[in-house]
Amino acid sequence: MAYNNQNNSGKPESKYDKSKDTVFAKYSCNPSGKKYFNIEVYSYDGGATKIRIRQTAANTNPNADANKKWINLPGISGLKKEELPGLIDCLQKALNCPDL
Fold first, then answer.
1. Is the distance from CB of 39 to CB of 27 less than 8 angstroms?
2. Is the separation of the CB atoms in 50 and 80 below 8 Å?
């Protein structure tokens, strides 16, 4: 099966261009001392304002470049404001799980 470089809307996808990303606010927390969670309020290419959650972990490689103390991990991007209460509710349920 050939990849046709289109998204679910049928429109051709364009490559991500960091210069089109506008970050309005950024919040960070480091609850464990080993991993940061960065939450950004952003807009891409003048589009809708959304939320991005990124994780960054300490680089444990002793031979790593001094500029690379943190490694970007997979994140969640494109969350709309109206989706956040559901996400927060789900996280709260997970936090209250007796098996956690």
1. yes
2. yes
Q: Which residue has the tokens 């364009």?
A: 14
Cα–Cα dist 36/26, whole Å: 12
Instruction: With beta carbons less than 8 A apart as the criterion, state whether 79 and 85 touch.
Output: no
Q: What is the pLDDT of residues 38-96, one digit of tens each?
A: 898 999 999 999 999 988 888 888 888 878 888 888 888 888 999 989 889 888 888 88
Query: Which residues are paired to 55 by β-bridges?
Result: 37, 73
Under the banding of pLDDT at 50, 70 and 90, the label for residue 5 is very low
Question: 4 by DSSP, 3-state: which?
Answer: coil
CA atoms of 27 and 47, how far apart (whole Å): 21
Cα–Cα distances in Å, from 56 out to 32, 38, 73, 90?
12, 8, 6, 22
Q: Looking up tokens 């996400």, which residue turns up?
A: 87
pLDDT tens per residue, range 39-50: 989 999 999 999
